[in-house]
Write a sequence for this structure.
């Protein structure tokens, strides 16, 4: 199946970095219609962002330790089909390369049959602790970016 994305890569950009994890719809997550309540989805995207960011050394704490905050600037969710109580599902997060000082995350939620249930994206900007917008990736990320561009990032 062709992967659908909200972001486009430029010629020469490295492939997106991807991480998946499994969950099951819990009773406290369903609404009166018996489906997962739509308001929970942003927290699941947050879980996916954190899992991928931490695996890459680009987690919230990594940025914070270098005096940088990464607030969410934009989030969009397309609810394609509902998840139901006790249903297993997989969240896939992909980080897309960009020269701009921002994090472009794309998400897909699949059911146990690998059917696409939800598509989403988020964009996080980088600001210093005085909330000044950064226009370049911070110094501490330069080695990571170099490895990413050369295809030497391994998430296994």
């Amino acid at each position: 199946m062709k992967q659908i994305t909200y972001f486009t890569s430029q010629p020469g950009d490295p492939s997106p970095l991807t991480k998946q994890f499994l969950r099951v719809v819990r009773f406290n997550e369903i609404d009166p219609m018996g489906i997962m309540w739509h308001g929970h989805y942003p927290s699941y995207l947050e879980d996916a962002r954190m899992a991928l960011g931490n695996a890459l050394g680009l987690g919230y704490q990594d940025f914070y330790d270098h005096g940088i905050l990464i607030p969410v600037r934009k989030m969009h969710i397309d609810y394609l089909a509902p998840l139901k109580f006790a249903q297993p599902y997989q969240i896939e997060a992909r980080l897309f390369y960009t020269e701009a000082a921002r994090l472009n995350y794309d998400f897909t939620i699949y059911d146990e049959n690998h059917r696409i249930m939800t598509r989403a994206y988020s964009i996080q900007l980088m600001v210093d602790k005085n909330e000044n917008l950064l226009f370049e990736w911070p110094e501490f990320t330069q080695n990571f970016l170099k490895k990413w561009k050369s295809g030497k990032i391994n998430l296994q």
